[in-house]
Design goal:
92 residues, mainly alpha
Length: 92
């Protein structure tokens, strides 16, 4: 299968600036960084963004466990997530 777009983030000229602004705004809330990282990774899995999924290594550096990273795709059945994280993942 061939990619439809080589670099989706740069197809729209202002897209990266908007994504950066959104990420900055998200971090100003009260959601714990680990939860934000899980939500970002899960959204990336759903959207099929290999670059973003590859950034899961950041979670590992921030103390995320292998069990949680490996079972995120099946978070509903995995016992490793808190109720708050499950709520955030459900919204994702």
């Amino acid at each position: 299968m061939e990619a439809r777009m080589k670099k989706p983030g740069v197809v729209i000229p202002d897209a990266m600036a908007a994504i950066g602004a959104l990420n900055k705004a998200i971090k100003q809330g009260d959601v714990p960084p680990r939860t934000l990282d899980l939500v970002h990774l899960r959204a990336s899995q759903i959207n099929g963004c290999s670059v973003c999924v590859g950034s899961a290594a950041k979670g590992k550096k921030d103390g995320e466990t292998d069990e949680r990273l490996f079972t995120l795709v099946a978070w509903r059945d995995a016992p490793f997530f808190t109720d708050a994280e499950r709520a955030a993942l459900a919204l994702t």
